[in-house]
């Protein structure tokens, strides 16, 4: 009897986590529909002329849509990691979206510019040059981890966008364990989603990356606080 109840409890916990991850990710997907449609159009574009039509609206939508939506997703991941639901009622995705909108849009503008510069340099200068390609690959990994750390810091601290940028840079550079954990877990999940199971992108990918990344960040945060 005890074994049966244990199995049932385990199945209930698994189903609860699946529904939690899926619901948060579906909310994130809904808010990012315009961005997703533009990205799909870019993937199926046939010439440089299409890029000039699609890139400007994408660059505009990233800071005002993608970054606030992803910040809200990380805020919910923070709630899961810290088990805030045991002490207070859960907050909705929409409440986190509204609360962090200004800071995430401001930080998103800066990060969109950085990503735009990296992609432009990659497109114009690395063709046929393996050395430059490797340099931009390393810079891309650094920027990828830096961007994710920005989300974690944004939802954990009450900071202005400029402070978020500085703190994220500091922790990205000075914490190799966090860097590797975020790069490997988020990178692996992203690659699996893009190349093996693309159908899980609107259902699980974002929420799993947010949960794994914030979990790694929170472990480092608690360790630093304990040492202090």
TrEMBL record:
Superkingdom, taxonomy of origin: Bacteria
Family annotation (InterPro entries): DUF624
Membrane-spanning parts: 21-45, 51-75, 105-125, 131-157, 169-190, 196-218
Entry keyword annotation includes Membrane: yes
Pfam families to which the protein is assigned, alphabetical: DUF624 (PF04854)
Keywords: Membrane, Transmembrane, Transmembrane helix
Record flagged with keyword Transport: no
Protein name in the entry: DUF624 domain-containing protein
